[in-house]
Amino acid sequence: MSSSSTPTPTKYQLSFLVPPANLEACKAAIFAAGAGCYPGSGNYTECCWTIAHGGVGQFRPGKGANPAIGTVGELEVLEEARVQTLCVGEDVARRAVAALKEAHPYEEVAYAVVKLEDF
């Protein structure tokens, strides 16, 4: 039995942390880059999973840092939201990360990209 269908693009999960005040701007940026679109006949877009309240992050900006939030040398503790979304294709994942870095207020954005398996 031969298969003549085109290969399915690789899927990635993009996860990131963001202060709640910047949540919507970051989501809009990654969606504009193509993240959050599910393949198939449903044409779902702007899909994500968000924990918007209750998460707490911390960091201490080091010497030479230019923090958007906090002060060099002082521990900063603040509420952060976590967002997870799907990126279909490596090109979409790379564009979404670039858009996230542009929209995000942090000097160093906390994010992860995980390659997904299709079983």
Automatic annotation (TrEMBL):
What organism is recorded for this protein? Sporothrix eucalyptigena
- UniProt cross-references to InterPro entries, sorted A to Z: DUF34/NIF3_sf, N-reg_PII/ATP_PRibTrfase_C
Report the superkingdom from the record. Answer: Eukaryota
Name of the molecule in the record: ATP phosphoribosyltransferase
